[in-house]
Each structure stands twice: as structure tokens, then as C-alpha cells.
Amino acid sequence: MEKMISVQGLSKVYASGNIALDKVDLEIKKGEILALLGPNGAGKTTLISMICGLVNPSAGSVSVDGYDILTEYRAARRLIGLVPQEVALEPFEKVINTVQFSRGLFGFAPNNAYIEAVLKKLSLWDKRNTPIKELSGGMKRRVLIAKALSHEPRVLFLDEPTAGVDVELRKDMWQIVEELKADGVTIVLTTHYIEEAEALADRVGVISHGRILLVENKDQLMHQMGTKELTIHLQQPVEKLPDALAGYALRLAADKQSVIYSYDTNAERTGITGLLADLSGAGLLLRDLQTSQSSLEDIFVDLVKD
To answer: Which CATH number fits domain 3-223: 3.40.50.300, 3.40.50.40, 2.60.40.3930, 3.30.360.10?
Structure first.
């Protein structure tokens, strides 16, 4: 798939000596959804700000659809829509004027039909003549997206777009993202809601301490790094696991009546058959078995541990 964004050796060091980004390399494909995950202060917003041309890099280069963000700034920036974390809107301006003005800032001629379509897609058309200050927090988020889409960008950055919104609105935004992808828009999403990455992303990038730890296909990542757990419910509680089972690295649950065994689904042997036989040999009677797959959140937590 053809690349839309190319980041090479990108670094940002502030005057204080703080290293916000450290030699980041990243390629983002046309038409994909990339979820960028990382703890607070990991460098997610700094990376987005530099790609969008809002922060100058200390070193490295970025191109958007072949346009360098420094030497061909206008051409690169016209391709990008940005939905920032902060809601910064003119409170007394009407919704439709806010969105139309944003389109004009990028040098695009007025297109009332397109603006109407965007506002309708975001359920803002009925609010088009409403002053921003009269909107709910969730509707203001929608206005930010409308502004970002006003100039028909081919790349959309969503920096924590659903922070502080209710579940219903979050699902509405997920639907909007899917529709934009269907239109060929490349989307980069930063989020603290891991379920958003699981639901939406084609690939997942993990950033910590200003460095990209990995960028991987979501399904492949979960297949390669995910583990399964087998929970064995016993008929009677036990205070201590028999020494004969020490080789399995079992965990005794807090209720003392369940034993947890982690195993690699890709391994040639899972060890389950031998474990069950050894449990029986140790005099432990089984009541039930239950398996669970590790989630993207589990993988993320493991990756960003120091």
C-alpha cells in the first residue's frame, strides 16, 4: 500500500533539555487507520504537532504525500485535518460560520453543499445557526471535527477525540471514522480508550518516552504477543498448590478455589494435557475450565513497563 506520511529520524529537544521525541521513524499508509497508544507524556501530541507543522523539529524530516512539511509547508498542510485535544472555539460565533471560516483559512473557495454534507454527517445541521457557547461538550467536539474536515483533507489526526464524551457519542464518532476511511481518508488516532484501538485500527503504534516501541498490524500483534489463560475451578479450596505442580508456574486465585495457567497459543505444545493429568494425580478435583485471551490493553501495559 502506498505511504501517505513518512517520518524519518524525527526528534524534539526543548531548551530545558527535555527530550520529547527521540529519533522517531514511522510510515503511515494511505487509507489506513493507525492508533497511536502511549501513556501521558509519551510524545503522542508532540509527534502529531510536528507532522502538522505546528512545532518545528530539532532533527529529522517529515513528508505528507511527498510534500516536505518545512520546505513545502502549504501543500503539506492543505492535506491535513487536525482535531486537537483542547476545545478552542469562538464562543459567540455560529456553527456554520466557524466551519466555513476554517475552510477559507486553507485557501479553498466556498462550497456550501460540501459544508452542509459535513454538518449533516456530524448531526450538526440543525445546530448550524446556534452560537458555539450554547452547545454541549459533545457537540463542540463534533464542531472540531467539522472544522478539521472543512477543507477536504486526505489525512485526519484525531488527538484524544472522545475524551470526556459519553458512550453514545463515542460510538457515533467511531461510525464517522469508519465512513471517512471508506472515503479513502488516512486517519491517525491517539486515545486512552484501548477499546477504540481494538475497534477501529488497522495498525497499532506504541510510543513511550519519546520512542516508538513498535508499529504492528493489530490482529497480528494480538496473535504474536497475546497469551491465553486457562482458569481451572476446583471442587474444593486449597491453601497451597502441591509441589508436584511447581513446573507449571501456576497462580492460585484469591478465592483459593481457582488455579490460573498462562500459555502461548503459538507454541508447539501448550502443556494443558500434562497439567490436567498432573492436577488429577495430585488429588485436585476439577469443577470447571475457562479460557480467556489477553486484550490489546494487556499487551500495551506490558510494553510500556520500564
So the answer is: 3.40.50.300
Tell me the three state secondary structure of residue 284.
Answer: coil
Which of the residue ranges 28-32, 194-198, 286-290 would you say has the lowest mean pLDDT?
A: 194-198
Max Cα distance, the chain (Å): 79
Give the angle 296-302-306 at the CA atoms, nearest 5°: 145
Q: What is the pTM of this model?
A: 0.73
Task: Indicate the pLDDT class of residue 41, thresholds 50, 70 and 90.
Answer: confident
| 87, three cell numbers | 476545545
* Poorest-pLDDT segment among 19-23, 87-91, 221-225, 267-271: 221-225
Q: How far apart are CA 59 and CA 61, in angstroms?
A: 7
Q: Report domain extents, the chain.
A: 3-223, 227-304
Smallest CA-to-CA distance from 299 within 27, 37, 45, 22 is with 37
CATH 3.30.750 fits 227-304, yes or no: no
